[in-house]
Amino acid sequence: MIIPWQQISPDALNSIIEEFVMREGTDYGESEISFEQKKLEVKQQLNSGSIVLVYSELHETVNLMAANDFKG
């Protein structure tokens, strides 16, 4: 189920984004991108709707995923 990210607290959203960025790996080609820049890019993708915040009732987890990959 998609959770409207605007309806959760800023602290909770920040924690979800941080966990997602830390889990996603670190190979960004020739130039390294800062942790803060990575978090900002994820937030921009949420704003644009290209990624969504998803709750899995089966696994009782929250995750970020590409909007076109979500099969709710």
From TrEMBL:
Tell me where on the tree of life, at the top rank, the source sits: Bacteria
Q: Which InterPro entries match?
A: UPF0270, YehU-like_sf
Checking Gene3D superfamilies in the record gives: YehU-like
Family recorded in the similarity comment: Belongs to the UPF0270 family.
Cited NCBIfam families: PRK04966.1
Q: What is this protein called?
A: YheU family protein
Give the organism the record lists: Psychrosphaera aquimarina
